[in-house]
Design goal:
- This protein is of the alpha/beta class.
- It has a single domain, classed as TIM Barrel (Alpha-Beta Barrel).
- Helix content is about 40%, strand content about 15%.
- Strands 3-4-5-6-7-8-9-10 form an eight-stranded parallel beta sheet.
- Helix 1 crosses helix 2 and helix 7 crosses helix 8.
- The protein is globular and about 55 Å long.
- The protein starts with a strand and ends in a 5-residue tail after the last helix.
Length: about 290
């Protein structure tokens, strides 16, 4: 496993395990435990995934089994839009995530979307960071123009920006902006989120065969070599193990460029953040009373 050092000197694993849409509590707990047994140390959840409790149970199970210590794990969660009304609602959301997960602190906490009063929400996160409840703070789905304005405004700049990043949506401009502000890029849907049929692509098949690896491993390695943290998701033990086995090979510069040539720009996105209907959906979605 390789690590990236955040601006506050906290070390973050370059590969983690995501639990988006794993709503069954037992399935989530089992999958996270399988991931930790495999060697993953970064686990990514969110308040809106409604499985922070299952992740917390898996963490306690792993520690009880002696697989790892709490300090060796890097647990991430995110504040949902509903709780970004103001400073006080954001403060309660942070405490709710800690309570649901049963953890004394979170290693990384993110604003899930650049919506509602995310500046007030960020101030609550800055205070929780100073108090030690959050070891690092960041954002998610902040496009370059939004991230630039944000970094030029807040007191503590975000340490991570989790966005959609895969060969069909490479986001080179976003990576340049993050590098300018020393924000670490993290990829959700690093394998494309089940779209585009990468596993049928002849070019990717050729590159995978060259290295004796699967297409999924090649795609994950491509992002990692760009300095991007990846958080693939699976509930199948074999795939969980396969996704983790990306640390014993290197893609050439030519191979990296060929993979990047698949980029479709904004057309290749899974979520249309510029669509007013999507913004209205996020603002209207309630995850609690």
């Amino acid at each position: 496993m390789e690590f990236v050092t955040l601006t506050n000197k906290v070390k973050m694993p370059m590969e983690g395990f995501g639990v988006f849409q794993v709503r069954d509590k037992e399935e989530c707990r089992r999958s996270v435990l399988d991931a930790i047994r495999t060697g993953y140390r970064l686990i990514d959840t969110a308040a809106s995934y409604t499985n922070e409790d299952a992740v917390g149970e898996a963490v306690r199970d792993a520690i009880a089994e002696g697989i790892c210590t709490r300090e060796e794990l890097f647990i991430t969660s995110k504040m949902w839009v509903q709780d970004m009304e103001n400073y006080e609602t954001a403060k309660r959301a942070i405490d709710a995530s800690l309570e649901k997960s049963g953890l004394e602190y979170l290693d990384l906490y993110l604003l899930h979307q650049a919506m509602k009063d995310y500046f007030s929400a960020w101030r609550a996160m800055e205070d929780a960071y100073r108090e030690g409840k959050l070891k690092a703070i960041g954002v998610s789905n902040f496009y370059p123009h939004v991230l630039t304005n944000f970094c030029e405004t807040v007191k503590i700049r975000p340490m991570v920006n989790q966005v959609e990043l895969h060969p069909y949506y490479t986001q080179e401009k976003a990576l340049e902006t993050m590098a300018y502000y020393d924000v670490v890029p993290e990829a959700w849907a690093p394998l494309g989120g089940g779209r585009y049929k990468p596993f049928e692509n002849e070019m990717l098949k050729e590159i995978a065969a060259t290295h004796g690896k699967t297409i999924g491993q090649v795609i994950l390695r491509w992002n990692v070599q760009r300095g991007v943290v990846v958080i693939p998701k699976s509930t199948h033990k074999e795939r969980i193990e396969e996704n983790f086995d990306i640390w014993d090979f290197t893609l050439s510069k030519e191979e990296m460029e060929r993979i990047s040539s698949l980029d479709m720009g904004y057309v290749g996105t899974a979520v249309k953040h510029f669509d007013p209907e999507f913004v209205r959906m996020c603002n209207g979605r309630k995850i609690h009373d």
